[in-house]
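In the laboratory, one determines a bound structure by crystallizing the protein with its ligand and collecting diffraction data. In a computational setting the workflow is compressed into a single prediction: the sequence and the ligand go in, and a structural description comes out. We illustrate the idea with NAP.
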Amino acid sequence: MSTQKQADNARSRETKTFDVVVVGAGFAGLYALHRLRGLGLSVRAYDGADGVGGTWWWNRYPGARVDFPSAPFYGYTFSKELLDEFDWEERQPSQPEVLRYLNFVADKLDLRSDIQLSTWIEEAWFDEQAERWHVNTSTGEHLVTPFLLCAMGSLSDTNKPPIRGIDDFAGELYHTGRWPQEDVDFAGKRVGVIGTGSSGIQSIPVIAKQCAHLTVFQRTPQYSIPAGNRPVRPEELSDARENWEQYKANMAVSSLGMPYPMSERSALEDTPEQRDALYERLWQEGGLHMLFNSYFDLLANKEANDTLAEFVRGKIRHIVKDPDTAEKLTPTYILGTKRQVIDDGYFETYNRDNVALVDLKTDPIDHITANSIVTESGEHPLDILVLATGFDAITGTLMRLNPRGRGGVDLEERWQERFNSYLGMMIPGFPNLFMVHGVESPSVLFNMPLGGEREIDWILECILHLRAAGIGTIEPAPGVDKAWSKNVDEAASQTLFHGTDSWYSGANIDGKHRQFIVHLGGQAYFQHLKDIAAGGYEGFVFGPAASEVLEASGG
Ligand code: NAP
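The predicted complex, in structure-token form:
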């Protein structure tokens, strides 16, 4: 819609003004709201969901759990009280448990009065003269604000694969990332799952136990490792509470924001026997430690990586009884360069009589009918189809909103050739629009609750700086985005990530730019953010406050 049409549309709506509008009420949105309110700013958070929780509101598919290691550390770090008063129950908390935590936080911090749920942000455009963002909501409001803080989540724009006939399917159709509130009854049903990323691999064992028959449609096999989920021990909770400062200090130096010291040993320093003994111990223990805390060079050195990849391949061949199925389940890409998956009995599931695997590499889907998936080799009748096909990650949600920045240029046009940003925080030509976990920030490859806190702290400090100095706008200076993209590319090229098609590089969405969109700098990235602020926001340009602009133009 053109800016003029948007403005006309806005005039017929109820107008509300805020110092900051926050989009999203997940981990990041709740924290932003809390902090901004604490600074005395008028702020409101909007979310399309009917409850708080963001990702954890929508992803309520069976088996959904945290993969980050682990409770009680998958949570906010800014408040010891939150840690002290919430008793995590499971080491890899389930989706309902994380949602319970976020609801506890919303109540404890008394956030609900400033959150508007069931409200989608539908349009946003920047009025250059008044230096205000205008926002239209699905509930008929028109919001006016100098600052738009987009905390919409990295994995929220679901990917419905463009398979011929998908809309003809007349059975029950679900996407893991938009799972219904009500329980889905799989009993007696023939179920198909497309996709074997984290969501597919977490849900498949649970669905298999409930349904009459499950067919898994796999495009790429995964190096899934056991989650090792178990109840959190009371002594683990008290240890975290008593030694909180030490755990925070660990997080402050860990390249991934982890609460534990990371290994400084190369996989190639150990003998094969020593390596296998370590891998075996970590396999039994479960969790992402196996990748991140065994050896430091697994994601940087192919030879080192091969040692763990071969270990996991051996486990798959050992667990899966049918050699043909085991072969189809055995991955060959570089371990860890797609998002590492952890599971609860995934490979064991293929030993069940009611589970079949279709390898789409050798038997691709031709089309979907009202009651089946037809692959090259034949028809697979289904009552329920589950799409575990992931997301248009990181860029998708903002692109869908398609805000209009300076000169009426919208984001689709701005990102026509490449997703560009400065610091992963701001987009050239979009003044005062901040992203959290945005494109070219560490987002999904850092402890997300912690990374969100740090990014939001930076944004807040920036807003305070602008207000104190009477500055109207901040935006990236011309050209800095190119240097930033180069920096992101260089960091990725020093790792093994470049060799694999993944959603980190846009490869999962037809027509998406093939560009590595995650900054791998970890702690160095956050230090860089601090340095930029301390140095007077190098790389940004400031605009005078709107009143001065109007005076100068005789307005
Ligand atoms: P995903 O990792 O992108 O996996 C999508 C799966 O669908 C892949 O197996 C993909 O195959 C397949 N696929 C996509 N399009 C297809 C098509 N047209 N035909 C056949 N197969 C197709 O998505 P996800 O599992 O939802 O996970 C996304 C991310 O969310 C994760 O990587 C993780 O960061 C996060 N997540 C976290 C947790 C957790 O913390 N516990 C749980 C779930 C998700 P290819 O691999 O061949 O593309």
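The two ends are 27 Å apart (CA to CA). Keep in mind that any predicted model is a hypothesis to be tested, not a measurement.
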